[in-house]
Amino acid sequence: MDMKLSRPVLLIWVCFSVLCSQSVCGQEAETASVAEHLKEELLLPGVSLAEGVSEITGVAISPLLGVSALGAWKYWQADEEMRARLPWYCQPWIWGTGLTLLGICFLKDFLGAAAPALVKKPLDFLELFEDKLSALVASVGFVPLVALAMSQFEQIQPTEAMQSGFGISLAAIPTENVAQLVLYNPWLTVPLSLIAFGAVWLSSHAMNVLIALSPFGIVDAGLKLTKLALVSLVVGSAALVPLSPWPSLIICGIFILIGALAAGWSFRLTLFGTLMGRDFLLNKKAEAQEVREAGIRGFLARQLQGAPARSYGKLTADTDGSIHFTYRPWLILPSQKLPILETGLVMCKGLLYPSVSHRESSEARPRSTLILLPRYRKVEESIACRFGCQEVIDSTLIRGFKAMRQWLVDFLSLGRDVITAATK
Fold it and tell me: Is the pLDDT of residue 410 over 50?
């Protein structure tokens, strides 16, 4: 995400964090008074390590589904006189709105299966941004509450927690143990919980990006079912926590580990889907003057000189004719400047987005190097002139559509000629 986009997003995140922190602090202040009721009614999420980790992992896979379902469950399990003291996400207007949005998404997937991709894909991109907003809300209003509950409950009643079978009691751990220090200290519990949530959410959100970018309905359905299966696995393991916390801890630990290892790949794919979807939904258009003065922005189509595929950056041309691709790893690390071979550049027009390719010889097929944002459609000639591309060609998909259209025109012309000849 470029800096112009990241500043307002960061401002919104900070403001929302301040608002939600007041709610979290209020819940922390009430923890002591609620402690005597914890064994009877679980007013706060994550009263043990296993339950807290499973709740964070499940919500990270699908924030809207996780927060809404958990809020509805806590609401119906609590006594009527205790419902007013439940956290914010357990209130009916919160989880009711979430479940309604989930129903709309289900209708979109069910009814949109037979709809053309040009009709369904904008809705998929809207769902993509809904998932980002849900994760933002969960990261500042839900995850800290779970982390505080894990540490506070173990400090209040470690012996009772072990006897009730809800989780692993920290009373059995030596005082000098590092794990005890981490779980007792909210200043460590909250950041670690946010890191775990972010790692799992990035991997899950990457699946949403693939759904939005995939042109095949069967792929969309398969990815949706995969996410549902992952959530079901976490819920099923969480149901075994009263018997043993280990299945939940092992399964959630595997998900967190996989998410952490794939964080770089997931982040680049998430950024790719976000910026491509933004230009597509807002129908952004670049001007020829912008191309000449500021260069062009896009993503590497393949690994180039150590830079991974889908690295986001800017392609610029210096006064001496040299071309460079400049990018920042993780958008905040020091910028890297990669030289681009000037010879053999080819500009490719795309149905959804253009691209810059290299042709090693006049007979060789172009090999994609840079995927440009959709805003650069209609200015391919200006880009080719600015960066010295040898030619401007249509992509394989566009050539296929043109060939199909030409075949249809020829077929209709032939039929018209046959009918004309038969009537004479």
Answer: yes
